[in-house]
Amino acid sequence: MTGRPDLQTLVLLRRVRDRMDLEYDRPLDVTSLARAVHLSPGHFSRQFKAAYRETPYQYLMTRRIERAMTLLRTTDMSVTEVCFTVGCGSLGTFSTRFSELVGVPPSMYRAQGADVVPGMLPCIARQITRPRRERPTAPVRNREAGTSGAP
């Protein structure tokens, strides 16, 4: 059964998504996320993608990059510090994923800034600074999402 998740499964998936939002800076892997809601890793990954149109890895990386964008705009932390602060274990992977999602490397993003202006409504600022949806990739199932070199 790989169709749309039922209501009970959606509740479980939301719980995992909320955990990813809160613990984005910690090592999170699909196996432990699935185990926490009593689903197999494969079924969890398929249901997550059916519900949210992206894999758990893609979702987690998007959240990490969003947080990195904020840190790059609002702090003096180095790109390396930002990388590890948001839970990525590899500066190279972080920079690659950042560039894919945002369109420019982290250092260039910091130098150029975002098109946010003082007084802009927060909902508009979030919309224009949100990373683009990444292109579909093969699912990463059992690796730690923040340190793998895979998409």
Automatic annotation (TrEMBL):
**Which GO terms fall under molecular function for this chain's record?**
DNA-binding transcription factor activity; sequence-specific DNA binding
Q: Where is the HTH araC/xylS-type domain?
A: 14-112
| Keywords of this entry | DNA-binding, Transcription, Transcription regulation
Q: Which Gene3D superfamilies match?
A: Homeodomain-like
Q: Which region ranges are annotated with the description Disordered? A: 129-151
- Provide the protein name: AraC family transcriptional regulator
Query: Which organism is the protein's source?
Result: Corynebacterium variabile
Note the SUPFAM superfamilies from the entry: Homeodomain-like
Looking up Pfam families in the UniProt record yields:
HTH_18 (PF12833)
What PROSITE patterns has UniProt attached to this entry?
HTH_ARAC_FAMILY_2 (PS01124)
- Residue ranges crossing the lipid bilayer per the database entry: none
